[in-house]
Amino acid sequence: SASYRRNMFLKKTLTMDTLNPQVKAVEYAVRGPIVIKAGEIEKYLEEGGTKPFSEVIKANIGDAHAMGQQPITFLRQVVALCTFPELMDSPSFPEDAKWRARRILQGCGGHSLGSYSASPGVECIRKDIAAYIEQRDEGVPSDWENIYLTTGASDGIMTILRLLVSGKDSSRTGVMIPIPQYPLYSAAISEMDAVQVNYYLDEDNCWALDINELYRAYQAAKLHCQPKVICIINPGNPTGQVQSKKCIEEVLHFAYEENLFVMSDEVYQDNVYTPDCQFHSFKKVLYEMGPEYFNSVELASFHSTSKGYTGECGFRGGYMEVINMDPEVKAQLVKLLSVRLCPPLAGQAAMDVIVNPPQPDEHSYKQFHQEKSSVLGALADKAKLTEQILNAVPGIKCNPVQGAMYAFPRIFIPPKAVEEAKALGMQPDMFYCLRLLEETGICVVPGSGFGQKDGTYHFRMTILPSIEKLKVLLGKVRDFHISFLKEYSALE
Amino acid sequence: SASYRRNMFLKKTLTMDTLNPQVKAVEYAVRGPIVIKAGEIEKYLEEGGTKPFSEVIKANIGDAHAMGQQPITFLRQVVALCTFPELMDSPSFPEDAKWRARRILQGCGGHSLGSYSASPGVECIRKDIAAYIEQRDEGVPSDWENIYLTTGASDGIMTILRLLVSGKDSSRTGVMIPIPQYPLYSAAISEMDAVQVNYYLDEDNCWALDINELYRAYQAAKLHCQPKVICIINPGNPTGQVQSKKCIEEVLHFAYEENLFVMSDEVYQDNVYTPDCQFHSFKKVLYEMGPEYFNSVELASFHSTSKGYTGECGFRGGYMEVINMDPEVKAQLVKLLSVRLCPPLAGQAAMDVIVNPPQPDEHSYKQFHQEKSSVLGALADKAKLTEQILNAVPGIKCNPVQGAMYAFPRIFIPPKAVEEAKALGMQPDMFYCLRLLEETGICVVPGSGFGQKDGTYHFRMTILPSIEKLKVLLGKVRDFHISFLKEYSALE
Ligand SMILES: Cc1ncc(COP(=O)(O)O)c(C=O)c1O
Ligand SMILES: Cc1ncc(COP(=O)(O)O)c(C=O)c1O
C-alpha cells in the first residue's frame, strides 16, 4: 500500500541533519552535561541509592532562592496584592505596599495584572525606573521612553543583538565579548550566526579589562568580520571583578572612536562586596566624559530582578535603558518587542519594587532595609570566605570576589589527568568537575563553558549556599583537589 | 582635533541601513500604526481635547481583562498563595487553593516562586498538564516529558520555528500558514528569513480549510523552497472558524504524506460557541487515525493562559506538547530553552490551575464553575450578537464566529475610496479603519494585517467588550459604514 511504501523510506522531518545548524552550534554549559548528571545523581539518591555523600549541592547557577535565600517580604507583598487585589482590604498588608500595588494596577489595562501591557512595559513602571536611574547616577538624566521592560535580562540582551546582527561572510557582524563570559552571549551569537570576537580579561590583574587587549581583538576581527558591538559584564560573571571608573572610560572612548554599540550588562550592580570597589554605571561614566560622548555613543544597559539582593529569578523581570538609538530604529525595536506581546506583568511589578523601595519615612522601611542588608552582608562574607579557603589549597588560585555571585578559581590539573581527559574526548576541566561531582556531590561548571586562555583551567561556583553549607562545600573541594593532585601527580 | 574630525563623519552604528534586514521586514499590524494612532487620540482626550466621541474603544487585541473581564478567583488565589506563602495561614483562602499552591511550591527550588525552574518547566506542572491532555483527549496517552512550559504560546511557536528554519536560497525552509493568519507567524517567518507559504482559507465556506488549496500551495512552494512545516490555528484567529474532524484528518494525512512537521495552535481550545461545532485536538485525531500516523507525524501543539475563560495574558503562561520528535533534536530543544533560563513561574502556576481546576467535591468548585460558565456564556452571546448586527449592515458580510474571540467581517469598499486610499499610499482597509477610528473612536485592525485574498477587504474586531459596550460599538460601526458607503458611492 501507499503508506507501507512510504514507511519504508520513513524519515523524520526534523532530525539532527535538518535541524537549524545555528541551533546545533549553540553551547550552553551552565545547564549542560554536568547539570544533567547532577540531576540523575539526585534522583538516584532520592530513590534510595548510595553515594559517598548524602546530597547534591548545586553551585552551578546563580539561583539564590534555590539555595535557601528568603524573598524580600515587601516585594512579595506588593506582587501578591497586585495578583489578588481583594487583599487590599486585609489589615495584615502594610499601606506602603498597598499604594504601590494600587498604582501599578492603575497602569494596567482593566486594572488587572492579567492584561497585556504595552510592549515596552507599564508606563508608570518605566517612569519609576527612569527616576531610579537618575538617583543612582546622581542626577544624570534618564528619559522613561528609553526604558524597556524585558523578560529577564536575557530577553533584553537577545533583542538588542537581534537588531544589530546581520550580514554574510566577511560582512557578518562581529560581537566583542569578554572571555571568560556568561554563556548567554556565545549562545546568542551562535544562534544568530554572528561572529564571536573574544577579548580576554586579565586574570593576573584581578580579571581587569585591558584596553590594549580590546584593540588587539578588534583589529584582528576587522580582517574577517564587521565588529559592531562590544559587550561588557560589570560586575563580572563568572569572574567577579568590578570595573574601575578609569577602565570604563577607556572602554567608552574605544567604542566612541571605533563607532561600536555598547551593551553593558549590569545585572550585578547591587552585588559589590569589597570596600575598595564601587559600581559605576556605564551611563554615568559616559555622561561625565562630556556631551561629545554622552550625545553620541549608543548604549544599552541591562538590569534584572534575578540578582542583587532580591534574587527573584523566577519572576523573569528586567529592563534595559537604551540611549542615543536612532529614532527610526527605536520604532523597529518596539515592533520587534510587540511580536512577543509583552514581558510578564508580575516580573514588571517586582522590578517596580526594586526601583521604588520603601523610603525611610515609610512603615516597611525598617524590615526591608534589614532584609536587604542581611542578604548583602552575608554575600560579602561568603565572597571573602570563598576566596580565602580556595587560596589556601595548593594548586588553586582564586582572584578576590569583588562582586556578582561567583568564584572562578584557576585550578592546576596535572598533565596525567589532562591526558586521561583527552583520551576520553573530554575537556580537562570537565573531567575534573565530573570527578568532583561523582565523589563529593558538588556541582560546579567547568571553565571551558565560559571560555578561558588555552592551557588554563577553572571552574565556576556560586557563593550562594548558606555559610554553613558553603564551608562544608569548600572543605570538600579542598579535600578532593588534594587527593586529585596526589592521584595524578608524577610523584606518586 | 581627532574627535572633531570624527564628528564630521559621525554616523550611528545602528541605523535603518545597518539594522538587521530581517527585523526590518517584520510586519506586525495588531500593534501597528492604527494602534499607535489610537493611543495618541486617547492621550489627546485625556488632556481635554475634543473629538466626536468621548472614549477610544480598543477592539484590536484579544486582551480580555483590559476589556473588563474579571479574573477567575481561584486562579488568582493559587498564584497569590505561591507568591506570598504567609497567606497559607489566612482563613480567607480555601484549602483547595492552598494545597495546590503548596504542591507547586514543593516543585520549586527552595520552595520559592523566585527560583529558576528547570528550562522545560516545573516537573509537577508538566505532569498535571499531561494528565489534563489525557483527560481532554479521552484517554489518548500523553507523556509529561513531551510537555514544555513556555512564556505564552508566542514563545513556544517561535522556539519550534527556530529549530525548523534553516537553509539559503532555494533550500530555505517553507512554512505553510493560513491566510488570514495571526501575524505572529508572518513576523516570525520574516525574522528567521524563512519562506512564507500561504494557503487560503475558504471565506465562502465559513473560513474552512480546503485540502485542495493545501496541495496547491505546497506544490507551488516546492518550486522555490523546502516546505517543512504546516501551521494551523484552530479555532481560528482572526477568522473564528472551528475545524471539523474530517478536515483535521485531511490535514494530518497531507502532513503524513508530504513529511511535514505540524504546528497546531490551539490556544482557543476552550473558546467554542456554536452548538454544531466542537473542538478536536490535532493529537486526538492523529491517534484515531491509527498507530501508523500516531507514531510518525511530528506534531507540536500550543496552549496559553491568555485565552480560554481565564484571559490571563499578562502572566505569559503557556505550554507546548511535542510528539514524535527525534530524541536528539529534543535535547537540542532543551538546550535552546535553557539559554533563556525558564518561563515565568507565576505563569507556570497559572497554567497549572487551568489544567488542574477545582473538582466537583472541592470547596471552590461552585464559584469556579460559575465564573467559568459566565465568561464563556457571555462570549457565546457576544459572538452571536456580533455576527447578527454586522450581517444586517449593507456592504458587510460576516461569517459565524464559531470560536476564538474575533469577528473578521468582509467589508465592501467603494472604488472611489480605494482610489483615494491608493493615492495616499495606503491599503484601502487601513484607510477605512483609520477613518473609523477618527470618527468613532473604535480601534480595529485592517484585514491587510492578517492577509486576505487580493481585492477583498476586512477588519478584525474582538468580541471582548461587555455586551453593552459591544452593542454601542457595533451600532457605531454600522452608522459609520453606511455613511462611508454614501460618501464614496458613485450614486452620490
Ligand atoms: C551576567 C548575566 N547577565 C544576564 C543574566 C540573565 O539573567 P535573567 O535573564 O534571569 O535576568 C545572568 C544570569 O545569571 C547573568 O549572570
Ligand atoms: C492564534 C494565537 N496564537 C498565539 C497567541 C499568543 O498568545 P500568548 O503568547 O499570549 O500565549 C495568540 C494571541 O492572541 C493567538 O491569537
Automatic annotation (TrEMBL), chains A, B:
<dbReference type="InterPro" id="IPR045088">
    <property type="entry name" value="ALAT1/2-like"/>
</dbReference>
<feature type="domain" description="Aminotransferase class I/classII large">
    <location>
        <begin position="111"/>
        <end position="475"/>
    </location>
</feature>
<dbReference type="InterPro" id="IPR015421">
    <property type="entry name" value="PyrdxlP-dep_Trfase_major"/>
</dbReference>
<dbReference type="GO" id="GO:0004021">
    <property type="term" value="F:L-alanine:2-oxoglutarate aminotransferase activity"/>
</dbReference>
<keyword id="KW-0032">Aminotransferase</keyword>
<dbReference type="InterPro" id="IPR015422">
    <property type="entry name" value="PyrdxlP-dep_Trfase_small"/>
</dbReference>
<dbReference type="Pfam" id="PF00155">
    <property type="entry name" value="Aminotran_1_2"/>
</dbReference>
<dbReference type="InterPro" id="IPR004839">
    <property type="entry name" value="Aminotransferase_I/II_large"/>
</dbReference>
<dbReference type="InterPro" id="IPR015424">
    <property type="entry name" value="PyrdxlP-dep_Trfase"/>
</dbReference>
<dbReference type="GO" id="GO:0030170">
    <property type="term" value="F:pyridoxal phosphate binding"/>
</dbReference>
<comment type="function">
    <text>Catalyzes the reversible transamination between alanine and 2-oxoglutarate to form pyruvate and glutamate.</text>
</comment>
<dbReference type="GO" id="GO:0042853">
    <property type="term" value="P:L-alanine catabolic process"/>
</dbReference>
<comment type="similarity">
    <text>Belongs to the class-I pyridoxal-phosphate-dependent aminotransferase family. Alanine aminotransferase subfamily.</text>
</comment>
<keyword id="KW-0663">Pyridoxal phosphate</keyword>
<comment type="pathway">
    <text>Amino-acid degradation; L-alanine degradation via transaminase pathway; pyruvate from L-alanine: step 1/1.</text>
</comment>
<comment type="subunit">
    <text>Homodimer.</text>
</comment>
<protein>
    <recommendedName>
        <fullName>alanine transaminase</fullName>
        <ecNumber>2.6.1.2</ecNumber>
    </recommendedName>
</protein>
<dbReference type="GO" id="GO:0005737">
    <property type="term" value="C:cytoplasm"/>
</dbReference>
<keyword id="KW-0808">Transferase</keyword>
